[in-house]
Amino acid sequence: MPISRGEEADPRRPGVLITNLNGTRWTIEYDCRIDHIPARTQDELAGHLQVISGSLPAIHSASPFWESMRNSGLRLEIDGWEFGYRLDEQAERVLILYAVRRSYPRESAP
């Protein structure tokens, strides 16, 4: 099903297209499995990635930001999970590289 302008798809699926209001499209791709991660955490990850990808078009391609992104690993920590990712400006892609459990919330510790 085509995605219309301004519509957001489920970024937990590989190759999902995110269309921001300004028309810039970024795909969110996974180089790791996340089906074992709680749905609430996946939803929060999706929200963070949408905010991140939505802000990127405002950054000029000559900005030192992009050089830093090419040379740096990025990560998000959500509910005791660490997600490593990188930005690919040329392909307009966010690539999730790994998902690792770092800690357990107190109420659900094993």
Give a description of the structure:
The protein has two helices and five strands; from the N terminus they run ββααβββ. The protein is elongated, with a radius of gyration of 15 Å. Residues 1-12 have low confidence and may be disordered. It has one domain (16-108): YaeB-like fold (2-Layer Sandwich). The longest helix has 17 residues, at 39-55. The protein has a five-stranded mixed β-sheet, with helices on one face. It is an alpha+beta fold.
Helix-strand layout with pairing:
Elements: E1 16-19, E2 25-30, H1 39-55, H2 64-71, E3 74-78, E4 81-88, E5 93-101
Parallel strand pairs: 2-5
Antiparallel strand pairs: 1-2, 3-4, 4-5
Approximately how much beta-strand content do the residues carry? 25-35%
Element-by-element helix/strand order:
EEHHEEE
Helix content class: 10-25%
Q: Strand arrangement, largest sheet? A: 1-2-5-4-3
Sum this structure up briefly:
The protein is an alpha+beta fold and 110 residues long. Helix content is 23%, strand content 29%.
Question: Any key phrases for this structure?
Answer:
alpha+beta, elongated, five-stranded mixed sheet, YaeB-like fold, 110 residues
